[in-house]
Amino acid sequence: QVQLVESGGGLVQPGGSLRLSCVASTSIFNFYSMGWYRQAPRKQRELVAQISSGGGTNYADSVKGRFTISRDNARNTVYLQMNSLKPEDTAVYYCRSESTGSWGQGTQVTVSS
């Protein structure tokens, strides 16, 4: 079971930016598809973005043009660059290995003035 550790969450004003990171404890990270999900209070967890082992990406309509998922296989890390943040982006953000089903512990993102 691969372990995933997220970081980079915090409090940011509307219109601001944050970059989330997720480090995976595996020697075969480059073969994994990875995803970012989020869960707001009283809502179901939802997909935000995915990146395949080959670098192909997929985004939720609500974040297209604002968020960018990327990966650095040399660092076993997947990133989520979040720009033009809105209050409705407030949630706990989770990293997931789509290949193994493993989840990280989550990192809180709060967008508020």
Structure description:
With 113 residues, this protein is mostly beta strands. 0% of the residues lie in helices and 47% in strands. It contains no helices and ten strands. The N and C termini lie far apart (39 Å). The model has no long low-confidence stretch (mean pLDDT 96).
- Largest sheet descriptor: 6 strands, mixed
Overall outline: globular
Sheet with most strands: strand arrangement: 2-10-9-4-5-6
pLDDT < 50 runs, ≥5 residues: none
Strand content: over 45%
List how many beta strands DSSP finds.
10
- How far the N terminus sits from the C terminus, by CA atoms, comes to 39 Å
Q: Which structural category do the helix and sheet elements fall into?
A: mainly beta
Oligomer: single chain
Radius of gyration: 13 Å
Order of helices and strands: EEEEEEEEEE
Give the count of helical stretches. 0
Helix content: under 10%
The average pLDDT value, as a whole number, equals 96
